[in-house]
Amino acid sequence: MSRFSAIRLRRKDLEAMKEKGETCELAVIGLVYADDDVDPELVKATITSTRVYGRILGRKDTQEALLSVSAIR
Question: Could you tell me the CA-to-CA distances from 24 to 3, 7, 41, 45 in Å, in that order?
Answer without folding.
Answer: 11, 13, 15, 10
